[in-house]
Amino acid sequence: MPYIESITFLAAITGFAGLTANMVLVAANRHRRYHMIPVALIVFAHVLLVWHFRYEWEIAQATRNGYAGFVIFHTALLGILSAPLVGSRLARRLVAFSFCVAAMGASGAVLRYEEVAIYRLPVLVFDLAGLTALAYWMFRPCGPANEFYRRYFGVNRYEREPGRSVGAENRQNDRGD
User: Fold this and answer.
1) Which range of residues forms the domain containing residue 111?
2) CB contact at 8 A, 13 and 63
């Protein structure tokens, strides 16, 4: 059954490429929830193939290499499957979360297991592209990091004078009156 393994791992790398593309769309503020539907279907098919052909529907087989990988991959699966079903703001955050979790799992898998070693270069390229997009999305002026600062510290990270409102009534004119 080597052709089934090929299809299984091809679905994995295709799903990871789609997740990376969605992370880039999130960073570019072009993400729509329906972009995650094909990715969710491909990843779900990959998980079903793994459970059927590699684990034979047994938990003991699925956790034979440890519980960490099991938890990592199924947490990413939960985020990927729920991203098309929730609101767009939460969907963007689920894409970012799922990308981080899947990147950890995929990187560890391609570096540890020989049967997926052929995918090392593509996975590391997707990691680099997705993590760059994630960093840009997090730390741009209207990104989640700025929302955090505004909510908990009452300031915008990009204001010149923290704590001071930027409304017209609080601005001084150029003459100093």
Assistant:
1) 2-153
2) no
Residue 173 forms part of a structural domain:
no
> Are 8 and 54 in contact, with CB atoms under 8 Å apart?
yes
Q: What are the structure tokens assigned to 90, written together?
A: 């939460």
Give domain status of residue 37, yes or no. yes
- What's the chain's average pLDDT? 84
The domain tally of the chain equals: 1
The position carrying tokens 């950890």 is 104
Q: CB atoms < 10 A from the CB of 177, how many?
A: 5
Whole-angstrom Cα distance, residue 23 to residue 42? 16
Rg (CA), the chain: 21
147 belongs to a structural domain: yes
Q: Based on the number of CB atoms within 10 Å of its own CB, is 20 exposed (0-12), middle (13-18) or buried (19 or more)?
A: buried
What global pTM score does this model have? 0.79
Q: How many other C-beta atoms can be found within 10 angstroms of the C-beta atom of residue 153?
A: 11
Task: Look up residue 10 and give its amino acid.
Answer: L
**Using one digit for the tens of pLDDT, what is the confidence trace for 132-161?**
999 998 887 777 777 776 777 666 655 545
Asked if residue 143 is part of any domain, the answer here is yes
